Amino acid sequence: VPGRGAGPELRGLDALRAMWRIRAFEERVGALARGDEVHGLVHLSVGQEAVAVGACGQLRADDVVYSGHRAHGHALAKGAEPARVLAELMGREGGLCRGLGGSMHLVDVEHGFYGATGVVGGNVPLALGSALAARLLGSDAVAVVFFGDGAVQGGIFVESVNLATLWRLPVILVCENNGFAEFTPRSAHTSVERVSDVVAPYGLERETVDGNDLVAVHEAFGRFLSAARGGGGPLLLECLTHRLRGHYEGDPDRYREAIADEEWRQLDPILRFQRRGAEEGWLDEDGAARLEQEARAEVEEAVRAARESPFPSVSLTAELAYA
Amino acid sequence: MAHELPYIAAIEEAIREEMERDETVLYFGQNIATHENDPFLKQFGGDRVRVTPISETAEIGMAVGTAIAGYRPVVELYMAEFMLVAMDQVVNEANRFHYMSAGQVKVPVVLKAGYGFTAGWAGQHTGSIYGMFMGVPGLKVAVPATAADAKGLMTAAIRDDNPVVYFHHYLLTLEHGEVPDGEHVVPLGEANVVREGGDVTIVAIGWLVGKALAAAEQLAAEGVQAEVIDPRTLAPLDTGTILESVAKTGRLVVVDQSTRHGSAAAVIAAEVASEGFSSLKAPVRLVTALDATIPYSQPMEEYLLPDEAKIVDAVRQALDSAPVNA
């Protein structure tokens, strides 16, 4: 898929590898959660991989990314090492945050991942601050914040959109609209169908795309990224997507009907991109299977490494009480 | 050498000097820098001095974002209560980032919040709400009582690598005081023994430090020597200085404008009861606001609040109490 989008060129095999890494990681975390090796609350992003990869795949290390509670995919796509993310989820010293943050508070400063938050929408304004800082420093770095459609009904979202447009901050707001705010369908928490319509009066550039189509996400995000790097912003990208699993691992998922297998095969962002690869001639069945196997092997290696990492020392409590 | 300044001017002097010294210091706030002759705007320009919408959540969260990137924002909130609409940012985002990231991130932000305006400002602009913040992990809480401390604590707060909630008392705004010339930094976490005495320890906070000193002078005329301690910061709390004093005097009165059950006084009393019980010769006395909303009407306002006479009464009760270990 050469030459598409205004951002870095989309390299099909790399993007597919990145999506499989997230898929394999999330599925393994689900199994580890059921076996209690990942003992806390986790929210998996299976089905939403194209958004994470389509956006983060074009960013530099000095571009700042924030995410919400469903953050594993964004962290991995921004460059976090799977073994360190997994060790964090297992509460180990070798984790990104030495086991103090867990799934909802992943932070990886080295890769520009400034973290997840457990409060819906809670860090949207932090991205504004990162964007302002980049501008004050004379850098063309941008800030990106991922949030779900549930965050949009909070006052913090409107306050942030207002301030970001007022100050023309280079921040890209990426809404992953999966149709559910935790356990509640969109129809029960707003009368506005499209998130991109919510922000219309502010006059910022906005677009709604098929979030399960990697190429669509990549192209739209690439245009937005060029604009933000060139002094534009803010911008809002709404990605319509589907979360295959429950809100959290263990969610009985009673509030929606399970998607039919065939429908999912049509929707699955990885299978869709593989079909595209086959049509365009840069991927065959063996190649696709090999990428999946490599991703699963990489995750197994991460599990092995995480298991070897000790639990953190209680002395961290006092050491980190204040900066 | 020293110069005399009103409390509010001492705060502004600290912010201005830190902005001159360090280009990473930023100043955000509602209703600041709204005209071109604003002195901060003129001196430092619109990149560093920014008026914000009445959006406390976005304002504080945005400031935190700049702090993470290496800036040192001061956020002007005017009324401490306005922080309550942005509570998630203050007590659940900014304060936890350093710890939860295992030290990858620092959040050097100062939240400047006026409080305690018990001069007819009624129920929502008069609270002494620092007790809500002092037990929040990761936050520091400053409560200056004098012009000198107002400057020294603001300077320390701006230089500190942690989020600091800086509570300045509105009834002290125009109180003049001597401020040391040159660089003046009051370390966060060091109480000040503002008056020495051997008979009773009075710990007083903010505006009430002055009332406690006046009460101590009144008691001195009766032959009672009170030691008056101003904690100056409530987090970290310098319990060591308080315990040392109580070890000497054996009696403690804690004076706090907060509602009793949300007060710093209750925490200080608990620390002394827990760690200094063997020193105590009498029960600890608390002089706080009543557990009620501050009313508008002036006589009622006075009824609810601590004052000099109530402090004197509490000291007398502490002195008259039968020894605990008798």
Give an account of the 3D structure:
The complex is a heterodimer of chains A (323) and B (326). Chain A is α/β, with parallel strands linked by helices. Chain A has twelve helices and eight strands. The radius of gyration of chain A is 19 Å and the shape is globular. Chain B starts with a strand and ends in a 6-residue tail after the last helix. Chain B is α/β, with parallel strands linked by helices and 326 residues long. In chain B, the strands form three sheets. Chain B has a seven-stranded mixed β-sheet with strand order 3-2-4-5-7-6-12, sandwiched between helices. In chain B, strands 9-11-10-13-14 form a five-stranded mixed β-sheet, with helices on both faces. A two-stranded antiparallel sheet of chain B has the order 1-8. The radius of gyration of chain B is 20 Å and the shape is globular. In chain B, helix 3 (56-68) runs parallel beside helix 4 and helix 9 packs across helix 10 (264-275). Classes of the chains: A alpha/beta (323), B alpha/beta (326).
Radius of gyration of chain A: 19 Å
Quaternary form: heterodimer
Strand order of the largest sheet of chain A: 2-1-3-4-8-7
User: In percent, how much strand structure appears in the residues of chain A?
Assistant: 5-15%
Measured between the Cα atoms of the first and last residue of chain A, the distance is 46 Å
Largest sheet of chain B: 7 strands, mixed
The SSE order of chain A reads HHEHHEHEHEEEHEHEHHHH
H/E element order of chain B: EHEHEHEHHEHEHEEEEHEEHEHEHH
Residue share in helix of chain A? 40-55%
Helix/strand structural class of chain A: alpha/beta
CA-based shape of chain A: globular
- The low-pLDDT segments of chain A are 1-6
Alpha-carbon distance between the termini of chain B?
50 Å
Helix residue percentage of chain B:
25-40%
Number of E-type strands of chain B: 14
> Overall pLDDT of chain B, averaged?
96
Structural class of chain B: alpha/beta
